[in-house]
Amino acid sequence: MATPEAVQDADQTVRRPRGLRALVTATYVSSLGDGALAAAAPLAAAAITRDPAAVALVSAAEYLPWLVVTPFAGALVDRWRLRTVLVVADVLRAGGLALLAILIIAGAASIPVLAATACAIVVGQIFGDTAAQTIVVDLAGRDSGALNKANGHISSATTAGKSLVGPPIGSGLYAAVPWLPFVLDAVSFAVSAGLVASLPKRRGPTSRAGRPRLLASIGEGARFLVQHAQLRVLCLLVASANLASFMAMSTFVLFATERLGVTTAGYGVLLAASAVGGVAGGFASGRIAQWLGARPTIIAGLALQVVVWPAIGWTSSPYIAGALLAVVGLCAAVTTVVCVTARQQLTPAAMLGRVISAFRTVSAGTAPLGALLGGGLAAVVDLRAPFYVAGVVLMAAVLVSLPSLRSVQADPISTEGVGQ
Looking at 136-140, 146-150, 251-255, 409-413, which range is the least confident one? Predict the structure, then answer.
C-alpha cells in the first residue's frame, strides 16, 4: 500500500507537467498580445499628437512602475496565493485594455489615457511575472535541470510572442482597424487567466501572526540579496548586461539606417534576428547549462557579448549585424535563464517574491541609465561608440565578478545554508 508521501509525490509528478504546460501556454498567449500592444500603443499615441514629448510620455509611463511598484509587488506576492495573483493580474489587464479599445472606438482616447493604461499594464506584468517565477519552483521543483528547462520554455514563449510574432501583428492590425490590437491583447489576457486558473493549488500564504510590516518585509528581501554573495554577484552581472544592452540599442535605429543602410523593413528584420536568437537560447539553455555547468554558462554568455557588441559597432554589413544580433539574443536568453534558476534555488521559498523584486529593481534600474548613456555617446562621439563601450562595461563586470564566482565550489550553484 502506498504511503501518503508516495501518493503526494506521485500526484506532484502528474501535476507538474500539466501545470507547466498551462503556464508556458499562458505566457505565450499573453506575450503575443503584449507584442501587438508594444507596436500599436506608439502608433496610437502618434495618431493623437505629433508632439514628441507627449508621445514619449507613454513610453515613460511603462518604465515608472518598475522602479516604484516592483519592491512592493514582491512583498505582497509572498503574502498572497500565487494562482490568485496570476489570475487577477490577467483579468485586470484584460479589463483595462478592453476599456481602452472602447475609448478608441468612441474617439475619446487621449495621451493621458494611453499613458495610464500602459502604466497599469506594466503594474499587472510586475505582479504576474513575480508570481510566475515563484510558482515555477512549485511546479518544477528545485532541481536545476528541471528549472532550467521550465524557465527556458517560458523565456522562449515570452520572446516569441512579445518580440517576434506580436509586433508585426499589432502594427498590421492597427493599420487595418486601430482598436483591434488592443482587443487582441485583452482577449490574450482573458485566455491566459483561464489557463493559469487551472494551475495546481499551492500551499497557502504564511500566517499573519508575527508577519512583519510591509516595509520591513521589503527590507528583509533586500538584505537577503545584498548579504548573499552569489545572488549579489548575479544581480550585478544582470544589471551590467542590461546597462550594456540598452546602451547599445538606444540609438540602434539610427545606426541601422545611417551606418548599415537598411530600410524601415530591414530594421524590423534586424530586431527579429535578435528575437530568433532569444527563442533559440531559451530552448537550448537547459542543455547548455547541463553541459557546461551554471557558472561557466553565465561567464561564457557574457564573455561572448564582450566581443559581439563591439563587432556590431565595427561592421557596416546588415547581414553580419543581423547574425551578431542573433548571437546576442541567444547569449542573453541563456544567461538570463540560468540566473533565474540560480535565484530560485538560492532563495528560501517564503521570501522568493521579495528577492525576485529586489533583484529586478536593481537590474531594471540600469536600463534607462544605459539608454541615456548610449544616447549621449552617440551624440558626442559617434553612432558606433555605444557598442564599443557596451563591450567594455561587460568585460569589466565579468572580470570583477570572476573571483566571487570562482569562490563557489559546488556546481551547479550552491544552495548550502539556504532554507527551503
Answer: 409-413
Listed in sequence order, the DSSP H helices in 49-143 are 52-68, 70-77, 82-105, 111-140
Rounded CA separation 266/11 (Å): 50
CA distances from 280 to 84, 201, 326, 328 (A): 31, 31, 9, 11
Contacts of 124 (CB under 8 A, 6+ apart): 89, 90, 92, 93, 96
CA proximity to 394, closest of 192, 248, 231, 282: 248
DSSP string covering 14-73:
HHHHHHHHHHHHHHHHHHHHHHHHHHHHHHHHHHH---HHHHHHHHHHHHHHHHHTHHHH
Q: What are phi and psi of 62, to 5 degrees?
A: -80, -25
- Picking from 68, 73, 102, the residue whose alpha carbon sits closest to that of residue 85 is 73
What confidence tens digit (pLDDT) does each residue in 42-69 have? 889 888 987 877 877 787 788 888 888 9
Does 410 have pLDDT greater than 50? Answer: no
Q: Under DSSP, is residue 410 helix (H, G, I), strand (E, B) or coil? A: coil
* Mean pLDDT of the region 156-164: 94
For cell 536545476, the residue is: 144
Please give the angle made by the CA atoms of 271, 274 and 280, to the nearest 5 degrees. Answer: 140
CA separation, residue 142 to residues 10, 99, 134, 136, 419 (Å) = 17, 40, 11, 9, 12
Instruction: Show the cell assigned to 6.
Output: 508516495
Q: What are 314's three cell numbers?
A: 565595427
Alpha-carbon gap, residue 413 to 407, rounded angstroms = 11
Cell numbers at residue 25, please? 501556454
Nine-digit cell string for 160: 516569441
**169-186 residue pLDDT tens:** 988 899 899 999 999 999
Please tell me the pTM assigned to this model. 0.87
- The three cell numbers of residue 187 are 482577449
Tell me how far the alpha carbon of residue 142 is from its chain's centroid.
21
Q: What is the DSSP string of 323-344?
A: HHHHHHHHHHHHHHHHHHHHHH
